[in-house]
């Protein structure tokens, strides 16, 4: 009988084990100590640390010959920290926002011309929209996408829109670039965006920007619900709830500027 081969690469796994061997208590380790701890031969361990050093994941102290974690790991770590901070800052506030509105709430970031949903809390109402974190939608279909596009510098927005086809999802979707730019200018002025059935018939939403310590918009928070509940008549109430949540999350992210109400 043919033996099933593992899809995992032992060399990559061993490299990861080398990196995890370092800690606050053991910030510098030599090849001999790493070999003993990991149960690997010294020659194998030496090749691993030499490769990791070449990739700046480890660096060697020329005085002791021992290795420590390299700056490339710090650079990668700061990227992860941004998402961890966003999750930690947003989740308790999203829970309150969902309780306050009774609607689905989510957080999205921008990738090109798409809104990518990185946090989501369901509501008791079943809506014909995405059901998983990581889902993508064209940004011009959504209030979160409008918020994120509106935060781009004008030249960057024009670069992304150049040659882009704004597909229609419903009869309410904005498909003309000039009309979209006018809408985004209004969103930037007022500090929030609405979406009435532009991405899905029967579904509306209100979104506001989340800012970090550097004052830049890094994400958007949105309340999504049935158009029977979120409409022009009820917009003010939902908008106030979203703006308040955005202000709290932004403060938790380190933003200290003035928050629009």
Q: Based on helices, strands and strand pairing, what is the structural class?
A: alpha+beta
Low-confidence stretches: none
**What's the number of helices?**
8
Distance between the termini: 68 Å
Main β-sheet, spatial strand arrangement: 5-4-3-8-7-6
Spatial extent as radius of gyration: 24 Å
What does this entry look like structurally?
- The protein has 261 residues and is of the alpha+beta class.
- The chain is 43% helix and 18% strand.
- It has eight helices and eight strands.
- It has helices at 10-20, 31-38, 42-54, 71-101, 143-150, 154-161, 177-190, 235-252, and strands at residues 58-60, 67-69, 104-111, 114-121, 136-138, 193-196, 203-211, 217-226.
- The strands form two sheets. It has a six-stranded antiparallel sheet with strand order 5-4-3-8-7-6, sandwiched between helices. The protein has a two-stranded antiparallel ribbon with strand order 1-2.
- Helix 1 crosses helix 3, helix 2 crosses helix 3 and helix 5 (143-150) packs across helix 7 (177-190).
- The longest helix has 31 residues, at 71-101.
- The radius of gyration is 24 Å and the shape is elongated.
- The mean pLDDT is 89.
């Amino acid at each position: 009988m043919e033996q099933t081969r593992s899809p995992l690469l032992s060399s990559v796994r061993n490299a990861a084990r080398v990196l995890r061997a370092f800690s606050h208590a053991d910030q510098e380790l030599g090849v001999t100590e790493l070999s003993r701890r990991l149960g690997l031969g010294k020659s194998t361990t030496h090749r691993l640390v030499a490769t990791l050093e070449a990739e700046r994941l480890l660096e060697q102290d020329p005085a002791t010959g021992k290795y420590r974690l390299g700056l490339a790991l710090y650079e990668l770590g700061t990227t992860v920290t941004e998402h961890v901070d966003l999750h930690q800052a947003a989740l308790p506030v999203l829970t309150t926002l969902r309780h306050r509105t009774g609607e689905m709430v989510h957080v999205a970031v921008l990738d090109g011309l798409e809104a990518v949903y990185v946090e989501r809390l369901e509501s008791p109402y079943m809506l014909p929209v995405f059901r998983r974190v990581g889902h993508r939608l064209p940004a011009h279909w959504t209030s979160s996408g409008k918020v994120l596009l509106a935060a781009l510098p004008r030249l960057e927005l024009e670069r992304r829109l150049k040659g882009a086809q704004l597909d229609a999802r419903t009869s309410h979707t904005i498909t003309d670039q000039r009309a979209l730019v006018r809408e985004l200018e209004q969103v930037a002025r007022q500090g929030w965006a609405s979406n009435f059935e532009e991405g899905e018939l029967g579904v509306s939403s209100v979104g506001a920007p989340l800012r970090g310590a550097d004052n830049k918009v890094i994400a958007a928070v949105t309340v999504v619900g049935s158009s029977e509940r979120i409409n022009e008549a009820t917009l003010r109430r939902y908008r106030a709830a979203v703006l308040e949540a955005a202000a709290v999350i932004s403060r938790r992210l380190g933003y200290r500027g003035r928050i629009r109400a």
